[in-house]
Each structure stands twice: as structure tokens, then as C-alpha cells.
Amino acid sequence: MKTITAGWETDLTILRHSGSLIEEFEDHIVVRSPHNPEYHWGNFILVSDSSLVNDAERWQNTFVNAFPEATWVAIGLPQFPDLSEAWTSLDLKIERMDVLKAVTPPPVPDLSSNYTSRIFGEGDWALLLAREIAENKKSGDHDPDSFESYISKAIKGYEQLSRNGLAAWFGAFHDSELVADLGIVVCGETARYQSVQTDERHRSQGLASHLLGTAAEWARERGCTSWVIVTESTNSAGRVYRRAGFNPDLETVTAYRSSH
Question: What is the set of domains in the chain, with CATH numbers?
Fold first, then answer.
């Protein structure tokens, strides 16, 4: 039985907006992003038949056949498998992501006088790129060269979506420093948030809540009637989203092995 949850459905819409190629088969979907080959979740397969979610070897082979040159394995699942050991035995890590949904736009709390906010202008994309590179350098999560190549292309994609009127990015600033940001993309009548981030030095200031509401209003003016955000299950920011009126929807599940 085909199952495409709100999280995956909006992911696919954003990928289509961004120029990715999506090929649908009877029981799975293949997504390719030739414009950003380093983006693992732009080059992956999505299992669409929930009755086949435990067949880990089959789906790993399907991924390898679709992406024979990939050094990673990235597989989206319609639900958490009953036999997770079938996946972990292949050195694939199963992760759950919370999908939260609101049917009324979250409020727009006032900002502290120490901050300003605005929709991104031409010069703000370079600030976002510099911030992303600095954050990765500090965390050491990704190889610096491959990450810079990936994130540069990703941000160019965000900028193009915004120019096309399909998305908008919003930032909060302390003096001239970008300290919080997020994006929102119109996916039909559903708006999907992207990359909600707040600098650790400026957390607990209500910046994310303010940007959530500001972006929601932008999307509402463009016909959206529901708002979706996907976040790590362990992310403490989930409390912020729930206070803003978001409620749990069907989760997103992934099976992944990084480059090696």
C-alpha cells in the first residue's frame, strides 16, 4: 500500500521546485539532483509501499543500482520497520524525524529591542553561507571542502526559489550579524519550513518564534492553509514549535549510511 506522509510529500515538492528529477515506480521513488550531486537527500530512494519496509537488502540493492557511483546510501521509509535489525545489520542507521503540523498560522511575538528581522535581500545570502561554513568548522560534522561545495549550491537553490516566488527566507539580526534564520516554501496549500537555526549565543530570546510567525504570515498571504515543520526527535526546539500551535503528524523515517 502506497504511503507518502506530509513530511515526504513536502520534501518531494521542494525537490521538484528546485529542479530535481523524480521518477516514480510501483513501490518506490528515485530522486536525483544533478545540480547538487553532493546532496545525499537530493539523491536517494523513497520506499512508497509500507508493506515492504522490512526488506532492507532489497532496498539497499535498489539504491546501489540507481546510484552506482554513490559513496553513501540514503533511503526514505514510509514508517518505522518492525525488523530494524535487518537494516542495522547492513550498517544502515535508522532515524526518526518528528513531523509537526499546524492548521492556523503561529503568532508573531514582538522582538526584543536588541534585534531586528527582515526577509532576505541580495546581500543576506552571503551572510547565510558564511554562517553555515563557520558553524560546520566549529562542529566538525562534515568535511570542510565537500560541505562548502554542497551548502553553496543549496543556498543558490534557496535564492532561486525565493526569486521565483515559491519560497522566502527570513533572518533575525543583532546589529549587522545574522543570528537566526529560517526558510518557508509553498507546497500547494501547505507551507513547509526549512532550516530553522538560532546561534547558541542568542537562544531563549524568542527569535525562532518570531520568525516562525513572520514566515507563516507570508505563506498565508500566498494561499497556504497548513504549515509543516520536520525536526529531529531529540531536538529541544520541538517545545518551541508545540507552543506555537504545531501538533504531531506521521513521522519521517530514514535509513542512512554516510560516505566512507
Answer: 6-97 (no CATH), 116-224 (3.40.630.30)
pLDDT in tens, 102-135: 999 999 999 999 999 999 999 999 999 999 999 8
Looking up cell 536517494, which residue turns up?
44
For 77, residues 6+ apart whose C-beta sits below 8 A from its C-beta are: 47, 53, 94, 253, 254, 255
CA distance 167 to 22: 20
Q: Under a CB-based contact definition with an 8 Å cutoff, are residues 43 and 32 in contact?
A: yes
Give the global pTM: 0.91
- Dihedral angle sign, alpha carbons of residues 146, 151, 156, 157: positive
Torsion over CA of 78, 82, 88 and 93, rounded to 10 degrees? 40
